[in-house]
Amino acid sequence: MYPRLEINIPKLKHNVSTLSDICKTHNLDMAMVTKVYCAIPEVVKEISQENVDYLADSRVENLKNLQHINLPKILLRIPMISEIKDVIEYVDISFNSELKTIYKLNEEAKSKGKIHKIVLMFDLGDLREGYFEENEFFKVVDEVLRLENIKLFGIGTNLTCYGAIMPSTENLGRLARLSKQIERDYNMPLEFVSGGNSSSIDLLQKWNMPDGITNLRLGEAIALGRETAYGNIIKGTYQDAFKLVCEIVELKEKPSLPIGEIGMDAFGNVPVYEDKGILKRAIVGIGKQDINIDGIMPVDKKIEILGASSDHMILNVTNSEKNYSVGDTIEFLVEYGGLLTACTSKYVFKELIYNENKEEVAYN
Question: How far, CA to CA in Å, does 15 sit from each of 72, 205, 313?
């Protein structure tokens, strides 16, 4: 069935093992983030056996489907009050930045006879979630430690996702200092000091990670074999553990310039076209409803993506050395945005591949 996302389990397991080894070399534990592939249970079950410390996701719905896997579950997105019951039921550790929500978590945990662990988020300048002022942060710590059914498990931060602020020895050093101050002032150990996501790998591998950081949350580094601060390939990992395969539904020679007065396209944009003469154009059965076309790359480097509507993607195959026909397939490597949307779409079929000897396109 097409379009199809092929998920190569041996390559993913290799990437998990490689990233886990990197973390362990630096005395860090690893939370494996599963959201980019929608935490497909069969995938998570297979690859979480590779020395993973935590499972982490932004959706309670995904963590609910992973209850059969015996690893602590972390909710990365700060909880909505409307989902508090499910958080207490299906999540072991949640990231938080609002006292009102923490009070609600405490009430629900008390009603269920549970102790719920939380990680308090501190904003180091990326300006997404977290407390921004240290005075307020420590007042919240005071309040949290008074709650009977909430355990302060640790503190954390997020970098690069919104403001694109890079992890550094200086900003993560501040987080480490905050953790040490909590331990000193309250005479309690913090088990979990999370220094960010896949964008922190470069800092780690350069041996510049400050002492006191104990955890990284890794998603894209595992899925695509890249650190996300500079977009560099992580040595020894696969970049093609996920591959998109699409079927050609039309193959014709047509002008490169549409004919007539140009108005808005289906998405309200006014497109601009370059006159490249007559092109051999292949249409494949996938579109913007299914995938972010800016997040995919043809394996055949002589194919050009011209654009897409909701349901069709148009390719320039003029210069390809392969003589394509209707019914043939074309393969694409995926970047983060392409993978996220392909996995979210119910119209993209998912195939798990367990054959370790399948052709390798991009191993570094």
Answer: 20, 16, 31
